[in-house]
Amino acid sequence: MPSQDASAQAVYILPPSLVSQKGLDHAGEPTGVGLGWIHILPIGSPSHIVEKTGGGAGFETYIAINHSRRTAIFVAATDGPVDTHLNLFNATNKLLLAVAGLPPLPPPQPKPAAKRKHPRR
Q1: Would you say residue 38 lies in a domain?
Q2: How far apart are CA 111 and CA 24, in angstroms?
Q3: What is the average pLDDT across 21-46?
Q4: Which of 14, 26, 49, 54 is most enclosed, with most CB atoms within 10 A?
């Protein structure tokens, strides 16, 4: 029996249904959002990751869970530049999947160029 109700990590919003999103992809391309937990890859995928970033008091925290192999990793690091944390999140995902004996996440899709809202004058 899980220690937490499944609804706590359920997907409630699909990213394509959002008008825009910023900051959800720190650790990978999100495939679902729910109660602060981000899902990477479809739920049926063996490499599916449920992740959450956090922090405070000078620390950045990250937890990544792979339910199919009952494997999880939690990391905490002192606060620093944003790029450092993005690398930490991505490296944690790679480590999680390697420990679980699963293939790594696919490379991120290229993002479309941002459209200008106002023409240049």
Answers
A1: yes
A2: 14
A3: 78
A4: 49
Domain range for residue 19?
Answer: 6-99
Q: Say if residues 47 and 37 touch (Cβ distance below 8 Å).
A: no
Q: How many residues does the chain have?
A: 121
Residue pair 101/69 in contact (Cβ under 8 Å)? The answer is yes
* Helix/strand/coil for 31: strand
110: tokens are 């290229």
Q: How confident is the model at residue 120 (pLDDT cuts 50, 70, 90)?
A: low
Q: In what order do the strands lie in the sheet with 71-78?
A: 30-34, 37-40, 49-56, 59-66, 71-78
- Answer yes or no: is 95 within a domain: yes
